[in-house]
Amino acid sequence: MTIKPLIILPDPLLRQVSKPFERVDDALLKLADDMLETMYDAPGIGLAGIQIGVARRILVVDVSREEDEKNPIVVINPEIIRSSDERSVYEEGCLSIPEYYAEVERPASVTVKHIGRDGKEHVIEADGLLATCLQHEIDHLDGVLFIDHISRLKREMVVKRFTKAAKAKAV
């Protein structure tokens, strides 16, 4: 397994819409393993393919607590087929927007249809942190960032800060 470099805001790649996979093969499974390794190393609880420069519809999540056994989930070609009217608010962060956190309101529960590592269709009924994490990562696959769910003023301040940092780093 290989730890991949993370794509950081303001990289325009983060706004790209990811394409679906046609089939599950060894290359895809290696990508999933690399993504899990990268996510755990960061450390984070979710990672979308686009965050390592792969514009394909894959994400990995693990919302288990540190003291618990790891519970990695590989989600290929996800589709939210149901979301609750009930809302919940979580303080979200993102590996592509390091050290910035904001409260985001999303549906409290979702049903996600996807392909698993085994190449078969699966359905995840999620609520709580898992529901939030899945929605956050699926947003990435659609070119949406969690800062798109906060006020325009706060979002512009974050983008400006990361743009300035990227320019300083490039010099």
From TrEMBL:
The keyword Iron applies. InterPro entries: Peptide_deformylase (IPR023635), Peptide_deformylase_sf (IPR036821). Belongs to the polypeptide deformylase family. Fe cation binds at residues 94, 136, 140. Keywords: Hydrolase, Iron, Metal-binding, Protein biosynthesis. Binds 1 Fe(2+) ion. CDD domains: Pep_deformylase. It comes from the Bacteria. GO terms for biological process: translation. This is Peptide deformylase. It catalyses: N-terminal N-formyl-L-methionyl-[peptide] + H2O = N-terminal L-methionyl-[peptide] + formate. Its cofactor is Fe(2+). PANTHER family: PEPTIDE DEFORMYLASE. GO terms for molecular function: metal ion binding; peptide deformylase activity. Its EC number is 3.5.1.88.
